[in-house]
């Protein structure tokens, strides 16, 4: 369509020129003494048009001729800029491929190209960002090559990079990325204090990002700051940085470490109060906290209060808790029988009646009856438990209790048999 319109326009122009030039009888006389020259008006117009076209092309040729040095300089700058990008991309590729020496050389070549461009007063739109990235590639390579001096030098040059006005030249995201990478390098060098210091320099918003929280968790665990690690793990679980199972496992492990680190009863109570309701409801945490309370000589009543939700859970579904933790629960409750109240004795008796074939409950009920001097029930429960218990320590204690009860009755034969059974348990 456009070609047809151009063709029609050309025909129209040709017709107009033919009409004008065909009937144009005007002349132009040029006097050049002693000569007189008569020229047709059409010829003069044609000569003027040719002269204008000739001058136009001559001026363009001169402009192109004088612009050759500038174009040559621009071409050289483009080649240097292209070499800079090629060197930077090559550094990234070599770093990903594990060729760290080549990656550092390519990064240094990129920095050399950038300095050359800066010396030539070339204005690159992202020169500062490219320079910082090149320093980062060089620092990463130095970290992989175990060259901390070179790594720190490139890192400081990147962090201290400023523009002509003395202002920081990099984007905030790029600076935060450098600080995160430096924190990771500190962790790899087993320097958790340095990693936490780098993370503390981040803005508040950046400190709550998932990557920063992961680094903080690792650094806090390396520095054995269990409480800080636990709080960080809670934030990561809230951000869904882990799967629910992994988050529960990590939080449970850190809470257990925090409980185990208590050196006195008051510290243990503070740690317990700082735990979330969901963490206090974890059977492993409650059992370990109660066990630690008993070890520190604290109040047995408070320890049993912590164990009450776990006990109710075990009574409702004995298989809900692993065998090893059920054994620890029984051991903790047994350790506090000297000051056990009637409510707990009633709970133990009720649980045994609900699950009469459970050897752990039989053992616990037998020991409770022994503390209350109910010799007949204690002997019955402990004999059944001793024959069925798979836990060697509890079975041995059950046989020892039976042997002592038999000795108190004067039944030496039964006592000897009980002592023999206790000794045979490995």
By DSSP, the count of extended strands is: 2
Total count of helical runs of at least 4 residues: 22
Largest sheet at a glance? 2 strands, antiparallel
Output the strand order for the largest sheet: 1-2
Q: From the alpha carbons, calculate the radius of gyration and give it in angstroms.
A: 45 Å
Uncertain parts = none
Give me the secondary-structure category: mainly alpha
What is the string of SSEs from the N terminus onward?
A: HEEHHHHHHHHHHHHHHHHHHHHH
Helix content: over 70%
Strand content: under 5%
Globally, the shape reads: rod-shaped
Q: In words, what does this structure look like?
A:
This is Heme biosynthesis protein HemY. This protein is mostly helical. Among the domains are: 71 residues; 62 residues, no CATH class; 78 residues, no CATH class; 68 residues, Tetratricopeptide repeat domain (Serine Threonine Protein Phosphatase 5, Tetratricopeptide repeat). 77% of the residues lie in helices and 3% in strands. The protein has 22 helices and 2 strands. Strand 1 and strand 2 form a beta hairpin. The longest helix has 29 residues. The mean pLDDT is 83.
Provide a compact summary of the structure.
The chain is mainly α.
């Amino acid at each position: 369509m456009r070609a047809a319109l151009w063709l029609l326009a050309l025909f129209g122009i040709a017709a107009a020129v033919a009409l004008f030039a065909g009937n144009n009888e005007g002349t132009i006389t040029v006097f050049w003494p002693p000569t007189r020259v008569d020229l047709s008006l059409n010829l003069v117009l044609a000569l003027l048009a040719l002269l204008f076209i000739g001058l136009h092309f001559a001026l363009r040729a001169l402009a192109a001729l004088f612009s050759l040095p500038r174009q040559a300089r621009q071409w050289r700058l483009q080649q240097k800029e292209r070499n800079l990008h090629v060197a930077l991309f090559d550094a990234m590729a070599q770093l990903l491929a594990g060729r760290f020496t080549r990656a550092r050389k390519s990064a240094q070549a990129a920095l050399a190209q950038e300095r050359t461009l800066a010396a030539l007063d070339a204005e690159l739109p992202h020169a500062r960002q490219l320079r910082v990235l090149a320093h980062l590639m060089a620092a990463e390579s130095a970290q992989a090559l175990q060259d901390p001096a070179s790594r720190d030098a490139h890192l400081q040059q990147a962090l201290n990079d400023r523009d002509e006005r003395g202002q920081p030249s990099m984007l905030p995201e790029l600076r935060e990325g450098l600080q995160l990478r430096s924190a990771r390098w500190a962790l790899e060098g087993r320097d958790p204090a340095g990693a936490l210091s780098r993370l503390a320099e981040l803005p508040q918003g950046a400190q709550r990002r998932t990557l920063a929280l992961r680094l903080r968790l690792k650094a806090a665990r390396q520095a054995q700051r269990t409480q800080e690690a636990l709080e960080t793990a809670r934030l990561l679980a809230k951000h869904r940085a882990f799967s629910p199972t992994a988050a529960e496992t990590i939080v449970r492990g850190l809470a257990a470490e925090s409980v185990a680190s208590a050196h006195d009863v008051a510290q243990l109570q503070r740690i317990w109060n700082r735990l979330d309701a969901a963490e206090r409801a974890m059977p492993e945490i409650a059992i370990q906290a109660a066990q630690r309370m008993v070890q520190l000589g604290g109040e047995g009543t408070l320890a049993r209060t912590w164990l009450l939700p776990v006990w109710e859970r075990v009574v409702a579904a004995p298989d809900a808790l692993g065998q090893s933790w059920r054994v620890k629960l029984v051991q903790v409750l047994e350790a506090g029988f000297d000051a056990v109240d009637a409510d707990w004795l009633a709970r133990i008796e009720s649980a045994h009646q609900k699950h009469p074939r459970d050897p752990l409950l039989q053992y616990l009920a037998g020991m409770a009856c022994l503390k209350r001097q109910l010799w007949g029930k204690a002997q019955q429960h402990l004999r059944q438990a001793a024959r069925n218990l798979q836990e060697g320590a509890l079975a041995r204690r059950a046989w020892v209790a039976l042997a002592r009860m038999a000795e108190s009755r004067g039944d030496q034969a039964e006592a000897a048999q009980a002592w023999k059974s206790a000794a045979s348990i490995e």
